[in-house]
Description:
Strand content: 15-25%
Shape: globular
Oligomer: single chain
CATH topology: Rossmann fold
Largest sheet: 5 strands, parallel
Helix content: 40-55%
CATH class: Alpha Beta
Order of helices and strands: EHEHEHEHEH
CATH architecture: 3-Layer(aba) Sandwich
Structural class: alpha/beta
Amino acid sequence: MARKILVIDDETxxxxxxxxxxKASGYEVITAQDGQEGLEKAKASNPDLIILDxxxxxxxxxxxxxxxxxxxxxxxxxxxxxxxKVQDIDKAMGKKVGADDYITKPFETHDxxxxxxxxxxx
Length: 122
């Protein structure tokens, strides 16, 4: 059975590109376009891994990650932050809210797939 990945990003074209890449790699993909929708879909679908943008409407990625990681039911889901925020302070904030990994935009798809496989133990 395919592993389920939730991709939360407000950039429609990037969402499509990541979805195509992940599906081609054999993953089932669920998408959300803002933090609130992402949090709801994470709780409803219980994905194997979450790829999460930081700067989004309604709720930023740090808040989504923090809410999931401090919830007993969802804290074991690996979260990869995918963001244009490249400063060390941003990466530190990602770690502080419980992110398991951090990728900066623009990124190479093979790097993303590599981090997904690492975080899923594949």
